[in-house]
Design a protein that fits this description.
The protein has helices spanning 21-28, 32-38, 53-68, 90-97, 115-129, 200-220, 239-252, 259-267, 271-276, 283-293, 331-339, 346-354, and strands at 5-14, 17-20, 43-46, 73-79, 105-109, 134-143, 156-166, 171-181, 187-188, 197-198, 231-234, 302-309, 313-321, 342-343, 363-365, 374-380, 383-388. The chain has 389 residues and is of the alpha+beta class. The protein starts with a strand and ends with a strand. Bound molecules: acetoacetyl-coenzyme A.
């Protein structure tokens, strides 16, 4: 029989700094209730000047390699929508920083916030061909919108690394998947811009349309009934969006649109996203971390995943929580990372946001800020130079 394949271990990393929404509200005159209740966000992680998707991705993945070694990791998939290079995969830098075997393939995947789920599915396909190999899937993003734009309150910076293998300790991923693609311009970032462009209301509508689309395909492919699921992990650009999406799914499937039921189902998945902000590709797996590290006992229970990436592509899939999963969690390290962030005041946040990396190809040292394990130390001849702290 085919062995169970899925997530064996999960580790997260966050940007070094944190900006409370109360600070943003005091600056721009917004009632803080709009942030705390209206979009469901308390604070956002902000990357230090010497952090980027590579340092965050490597910081997330390092504990997995420390625990499980790197033997048989033959593929590294790096998912991001805040790429640092048009040609070279950010994963190659991580491969180097972590000393992974040269007998491996490394690739970067992009489709807005969805790409890590594509990476997970590709990993499962590879492991089905050869159950002895393991795949490292890294989701890493620094979310940036223009200052004083509506999207500003939904920024964030974080990475999640997943070790995918046969006979996993956390989560066995099931067939089938429900998939959906529609060409919409709800959110995009042209190559010449460092901040994303977004049509906020259009993006919410596009997300809800994608929920319908991939659920419809999931049921047509013979998926589980909605009632089977013990919990749901949604992509959370802001945590209120997960409530909106779940309420929409309940409504679409003919269930009463019950606010309390939608809130109760989603509340267990928002602990990290509410204080980290939008981490794009990592967001739905931060929802998973919050769920597994919470109080509910999920031994043997099915969880539904809704992964959405603007533009747009979405996928609904189910996974069963492996009995005994609690022994494989990294709850303490994750909470320490989030609690250990350094708070920014508004001027310091604004200075970080407006700082631009030099593009002249000269030799530029970057002052040390982060206390994370890896840092971007210099730019030299248009090359990024990383170091292990
Ligand atoms: N107290 C409590 N609630 C309040 C309030 C107050 N004082 N003031 C306003 N609110 C509520 C509003 O009623 C509204 O709630 P509902 O959505 O339930 O009606 C909520 O706060 C937000 O208010 P607005 O819609 O007026 O907010 P806005 O237009 O200024 O910005 C946003 C909201 C469009 C989401 C904006 O933050 C944005 O553009 N974000 C980036 C795009 C995004 O995240 N889109 C999500 C879907 S796309 C996706 O998922 C991919 C991705 O990652 C980008």
């Amino acid at each position: 029989p085919t062995p169970a394949i899925g997530i064996h271990d999960l580790s997260l990393a966050t940007g070094h700094f944190v900006l409370p929404h109360a600070t943003l509200a005091a600056h721009n005159g917004t009632d803080v209730g709009k942030y705390h209740i209206g979009i469901g966000q308390r604070s956002m992680s902000v990357a230090a000047a010497d952090e980027d998707i590579v340092t965050l991705g490597a910081a997330a993945a390092a504990p997995l390699i420390a625990t499980h070694g790197s033997d048989n990791i033959r593929t590294v998939v790096f998912a991001t929508e805040s790429s640092i290079d048009q040609a070279k995969s950010a994963g190659v830098y991580v491969h180097s920083l972590l000393g992974l075997p040269s007998a491996s393939r490394v690739v970067e995947l992009k489709q807005a916030c969805y790409a890590a789920t594509a990476g997970l599915q590709f990993a499962i396909g590879l492991i089905r061909r050869d159950p002895t190999q393991r795949v490292l899937v890294i989701a890493s993003d620094v979310s940036r919108y223009d200052l004083d734009s509506p999207g500003e309150a939904t920024q964030g910076a974080a990475a999640v690394a997943l070790l995918v293998s046969a006979d996993p300790a956390l989560l066995a991923v099931e067939d089938p998947s429900g998939v959906f693609t529609a060409d919409v311009m709800d959110f995009w970032r042209p190559n010449y811009r460092t901040a994303a462009l977004v049509d906020g209301q259009e993006s919410i509508t596009a997300y809800l349309q994608a929920v319908e689309g991939c659920w419809k395909d999931y049921t047509e492919q013979g998926g589980r009934d909605l009632e089977d699921f013990a919990a749901f992990c949604y992509h959370q650009p802001f945590t209120k969006m997960a409530y909106k999406a779940h309420r929409h799914l309940l409504n679409y499937t003919g269930h009463a649109t019950d606010e309390d039921r939608a809130y109760a189902a989603i509340a267990r998945t928002t602990a990290y996203n509410a204080v980290i902000g939008n981490s794009y590709t990592a967001s739905v797996y931060l929802a998973l971390a919050a769920l597994l590290e919470g109080e509910q006992d999920l031994d043997g229970r099915p969880v539904g995943f809704l992964s959405y990436g603007s533009g747009s592509v979405a996928e609904f899939f189910a996974a069963t929580v492996v009995p005994g999963y609690r022994d494989a969690l990294r709850t303490q390290a994750h909470r320490a990372a989030v609690d250990g962030r350094t708070e920014l005041d508004y001027p310091a946040y604004r200075a970080l946001h407006t700082a631009v990396l030099p593009t002249d190809g000269g030799d530029h040292r970057i002052a040390a800020q982060t206390t994370g394990p890896f840092r971007l130390a210099a730019l030299r001849g248009h090359k990024r130079i990383y170091e292990t702290r």
